[in-house]
Every structure is written in structure tokens, then in C-alpha cells.
Amino acid sequence: MQIHGRWYDGKSSKSTEATLAVAHDGQLEVRDQAAHSLLGEAHASAVSLSSRLGNSARFVRFASGAAFETTDNAAVDQLQRQWQPGRWRGVLHKLESHLGLVVCSAVLLVGLAWAGALYGVPATARVIAFSLPQDTLDRVSKETLGLLDRMHFSPSELPEQTRNQVREEFAPVLAQFPELPLKVEFRKGSEQIGANAFALPDGTIIFTDQMIELSKSADERGAILAHEIGHVALRHSLRAVIQNAVIGFVYVTLVGDGSAMGDLLIGLPVLATTLAYSRGHESEADAFSAEYLDRAGIDRQAFVDVMQRLGETMRCRYLIDEQEDVSYEQLSDKEHLALCETLAAEQGEDTDSSWMGYLSTHPELEERLEDFRSL
């Protein structure tokens, strides 16, 4: 039997057209196809035969490091059956050639990938997040707050008396969680941030001036604070960052591009400011807030009221900012309400809070509040 292919001497990248001859006793000889000079020899039982995969080229590797490459898969299969028989020889080729098994494998792979992304990655992120030391949380939070201050925040313009009053209101809430290093900061949010509250991994909770002005009572502010404490206690911001980092590592493994992963690691503080909490994280923080309100004897309606008001505000901002000749920030509260009602009427909408939800980082508002009431 003769097999045509190319010869690699194992010392350079140069290849030579060659012919591999198989004698009756299993002796192999590789000769230069043009000069017929002997390039290599060995017994068939002493060489290494690469597995068959589709119609890709096969290699007959010699102990010296040299190799003979050929696309004559049938001949290599015959050589393998005669001189290197084994139960598992050719199994990979049989599997990848079986259409039904290929389809089943593809479905199984997609299912495993989906289950891993939906359950495995969040579970892994949770374990990692709760294993990180406080020093790491402090460092990430410091860089994140610095970035927020440069991009979205300015110093609070609330009167000192108002800030002191709010701190006094928050004191009994914070006292309920002595195991957490909690502290509250005030900032004026940019036009994009508006009325909002943020929880950083180290326990720092930021209220924007607009959020304080939007809330109507200490109970409402306490409910929002408890929700943000839930994010701290359950390490949601870290878990969100880690989940995306894990997905990034998987991406690098699949495509072999490490530059994207380096950018991700360098930009962790940026991710912490921009990543949306998942619906699951928001639900967990809502449950945390509901538990606090029930324990403190505060009606859950306090949270519902402030969230609905916030949803209406964000919906109104959306409607007004769509207009080319006016900006939300240029109008007073009364002007906001009047213009919003006019625009909503023109678009055939009502002015309740059943809008798309407040901010892109939160689940559908009405559905979320229904869940909150029934927790």
C-alpha cells in the first residue's frame, strides 16, 4: 500500500512531497517522491497516528519528531485497523459523522451554555463576591465614587440643615445593620442621573439631592435606604461586575482574544457605575426593604409611593426630553407636570406610572411593585 502526502523532518518548516509505502510485515518507508531517496522508516506499530476528524489531514508521526501528512484518510484508517487496532479507534470520527448525534450534541451544548450563564455564572459570582476582603471593596468603591464624581455628580446643594435632618432619620435604619460598614453621602446628580440612590460595595450609599427632594416623608426615604442596604448586604454590585468578568473570561477562552479581558479588568470601576442590576438582584433588594419595613412597623406603601412618584418623574423626563425645543432641567416642577400631561395626552397615554419602568436599570415598575406588595 502506498500513501501520497508531504514529509516534515521535524527540524524546519520545510516540507517535501513524499510517498509512504507499507510492506506486508508492517514496515513503513517514506521516500522523496521526486528523488526516491529514503526520508524515514519505522514499523507501523511504532508510529503515532492522529485521529480522524472530518476530512482534515492526518499525521503519521515518527519517534524522531518527523511527520508524514496526508489527506488519504481511508488509507490511514486501513493502516490503523491492521497494525494499531483498538476499541476506541475512530470513535471520534464516527460520532462527528453521525447527523443525529451531532444535532443532539449541539442541543446539549446550547442547553449547558444557557444553564451555565443563567445559574452557574451567578452562583460563582456570589461565592467570589462574598470571599473578597474589605480592602478590595474599599478600593473598588473609592475608584467608582471618584469616577461618578467626575462624570455624573457634583457637590450636594441641599441645605446643611436638611442633610442633618435626613442623617437623623437614617440613623435608626443604619443601626439595624451593625455588621455592615454603612455610611450615607449626598451628591447632586447630573441630568442623566436625576433622582436616584446608589450602593457601593464598601457600604457607601449615595442619595442625590433630587431623590431627597422627590421623597415626601422619612418613611419613604427609609424604605429607599433599606433597599440600597440590601444591595450592600447581598453584594449585588460586585456580583454584577464578577458575572461580566466571568463571561469575559469565557469569551477569551472561546475566541482567544485576551486584549478584551485586559480592558475589562482595568475598567472594573467603570463597570460598577454602568452595569444594571438584574431583575433577581432588584427583587432581592426589594425583599430586604420589605422585611425591614415590616419589622419596623412601617406600611409598605411608603416604598410603593416613592417608587411610583419616581417612575412618573422619569416618564415625564423622557417625554419632555424628546422635544427639541425644551429641556427637563430648564423647567420648574409645576411646569414639568403641566407639560408632561399635555404631551401624554397628545400621545394618547395616561399619566400614571405604568410607563416602561424607572431607569433602564430597573425591572418593569408596576410589575415590580405588585411583587413588592405580595412579598
Automatic annotation (TrEMBL):
<keyword id="KW-0862">Zinc</keyword>
<feature type="domain" description="Peptidase M48">
    <location>
        <begin position="161"/>
        <end position="373"/>
    </location>
</feature>
<protein>
    <submittedName>
        <fullName>M48 family metallopeptidase</fullName>
    </submittedName>
</protein>
<keyword id="KW-0378">Hydrolase</keyword>
<feature type="transmembrane region" description="Helical">
    <location>
        <begin position="99"/>
        <end position="121"/>
    </location>
</feature>
<feature type="domain" description="DUF7092">
    <location>
        <begin position="3"/>
        <end position="81"/>
    </location>
</feature>
<keyword id="KW-0479">Metal-binding</keyword>
<keyword id="KW-0645">Protease</keyword>
<comment type="similarity">
    <text>Belongs to the peptidase M48 family.</text>
</comment>
<keyword id="KW-0812">Transmembrane</keyword>
<dbReference type="InterPro" id="IPR051156">
    <property type="entry name" value="Mito/Outer_Membr_Metalloprot"/>
</dbReference>
<dbReference type="Pfam" id="PF23368">
    <property type="entry name" value="DUF7092"/>
</dbReference>
<keyword id="KW-1133">Transmembrane helix</keyword>
<dbReference type="InterPro" id="IPR055518">
    <property type="entry name" value="DUF7092"/>
</dbReference>
<dbReference type="Pfam" id="PF01435">
    <property type="entry name" value="Peptidase_M48"/>
</dbReference>
<keyword id="KW-0482">Metalloprotease</keyword>
<keyword id="KW-0472">Membrane</keyword>
<dbReference type="InterPro" id="IPR001915">
    <property type="entry name" value="Peptidase_M48"/>
</dbReference>
